[in-house]
Amino acid sequence: MSDLEPLAVPEEIPVSRGSLYGRIVMYGILGLLLVFGVLDYRAKSSASKTATIWGDLVVREEMDNRLRKSNHAQYIDGTPTLAEYDVPNEMGGTDNILEYTWHGAIRNYVVKLSLANGVDPMVIKVE
Fold it and tell me: Which CB contacts under 8 angstroms, 24+ apart, belong to 104-109?
């Protein structure tokens, strides 16, 4: 037993400041990419959910339960911005368009509602 040598204790490998700063920068960039991805996913899912609900309400058979300008806002998910404008139609008149935009970190997601004419117009089409 005296022939055995004591085990050598490995020396600690020093961590240089350069590799520490490199890791901080790398994890910071990964964190920012994660935040951008989550923000964009939230905008996309909100726009998609809202468009699906509006689309289902537009094709309803019952005229009393169809989507109208006065009640469409209750189905909005998220916080989009609204732009309202008129476009000329084939008959020589104008159609009222409501354009909702959900702003993501990477893209913007747009849903347009075409309205009929009248006091409380019905939504004709969801794009």
Answer: 104/39, 104/40, 104/41, 104/42, 104/43, 104/44, 105/35, 105/36, 105/37, 105/39, 105/40, 105/43, 106/36, 106/37, 106/40, 107/40, 107/43, 107/44, 108/43, 109/43, 109/44, 109/46, 109/47, 109/48
